[in-house]
Amino acid sequence: MDIVLVILGLALLILGHEFGHFSAAKFLKMKVEEFGIGFPPRLFGKKKGETIYSVNALPFGGFVKIYGEDGEENGDSEAFLNKSFWQKSVVVLAGIVMNFLIGWVMLAIVLMIGTAPHLMITSVESNSPAMQAGLKTGDVIKGAEVGGRVFADPISDAEFATAVKDASDPAIQLTILRNGSTMQVSLDKRLNPPPGQGAIGVGLSEIGMPPEPFFQSLSDAAVEVWNFSLLIFGGLWVLISGIFVNPSVVNEVAGPVGIVVLASNATSIGIAYLVQLLALISVNLAVLNLIPFPALDGGRFLIFVIEKMRKKKISSKVQLAVNGAGFALLILLMVFVTFNDIKNLVIH
After folding, report:
1. Is 241 in contact with 328 (CB distance < 8 Å)?
2. What's the CA gap between 109 and 122, in Å, rounded?
3. Which of 44, 78, 110, 223 has its CA 20 to 30 A from that of 309?
């Protein structure tokens, strides 16, 4: 059930993006030939006005088909590619704006309702008792017995760390929540851990936050969207520049399978955490689409800017070729990261 909920949430983010394009095109009186939920083959559709509203077999988002978007009506003044610079720009960038808005609203909702407190493992050191016991990043400590003291969720990071440090008995019992399942883990702390590492070799963080007032949540959510966007831009720069120095850095990128697994883990500790993660994914989609790369919205906008600057249209055939090549590269990257996700799942 968690997986279904995650896939539905991700699909709605993509559908929201396409709805941004659709609503902007309709607002500017452009002819929208079809607005589809999911991807073909079509299951059924209904035409209202000039637009076919369809439901399709592959439930992974949706699509919008705007008259003349691909240049097939190159000589028609009503075709999308023959519209003014600002009209085309508004339609292309509307999907990005919609993803920012979705992320902002979702984060505001999470801040308003708050999230339950938990103690989460944020890192596991190599060759540590934690790694040898099978603990993983993202595990939630729901209970613990350390040196005769019993801890129950929610657990204080400071109290737990102090108890581990002061315990005369090295044996530690943990109750771990992972992927919606609870398990018992036993390990022995080390007396002389390496510098910078704790006795069991994990990084811990207290997650969760109390509810906020309505207007404060809106303001704080906007700040969170801005800060997260900056982090994504920084991460993309590190990734892109790092590829030329260390190509294996691509292995750190999560694909669709990895995202579903991560979101499913978030669902297991509370629906609010899933909404929070989906909000961040929506912001991530917005930032990625801003990149001036062929086939992405940012790449299409760049073409419009170039046309405006040179005061001459770029051939629709050239645009189709460039976008097609960009789309092919994106598909290859998607296949690679998906394979990497599956490989990591098998290994771990």
Report:
1. no
2. 25
3. 78
Measured distance CA(268)–CA(116) in Å, rounded: 12
Residues 184 and 267 grouped into a single domain: no
Residue 193 within a domain = yes
Would you tell me how many other CB atoms lie within 10 Å of the CB of residue 245?
Answer: 7
Same domain, 100 and 126: no
How many CB atoms are located within 10 Å of the residue 114 CB?
Answer: 14
Is position 215 within any domain?
Answer: no
Cis bond before residue 170 (omega within 30° of 0): no
Q: Which residue, 209, 239, 266, sits at the end of a domain? A: 209
Encoded tokens for 147: 């040196």
Report the chain's terminal Cα–Cα distance, integer Å.
22
- Taking only the tens place, the pLDDT of each residue in 279-326 is 988 998 999 899 888 888 999 999 899 989 988 888 777 877 887 887
Q: Which domain covers residue 21, as residue numbers?
A: 2-113+253-347
pLDDT at 341 over 60: no
**DSSP per-residue string spanning 26-69:** HHTT--EEEEEEEEEEEEEEEEETTEEEEEEEEEEEEEEEETTT
pLDDT reading at 258 higher than 60: no
Instruction: Say how far apart CA 322 and CA 44 lie, in whole Å.
Output: 32
In this prediction the pTM is 0.79
Q: What is the CATH number of the domain that holds 127?
A: 2.30.42.10
Do 179 and 260 lie in a common domain?
no
> pLDDT category, 68, cuts 50, 70, 90?
confident
The amino acid occupying position 184 is: Q
Query: Taking the CB of residue 15, how many other CB atoms lie within 10 A of it?
Result: 21
Return the structure tokens found at 88. Answer: 């085309």
Q: What separation in angstroms does the CA of 177 have from each of 55, 84, 157, 329, 341?
A: 38, 55, 16, 38, 22
Can you list the positions of beta strands (E) in the chain?
32-48, 51-66, 115-124, 140-146, 149-152, 171-178, 181-188, 202-209
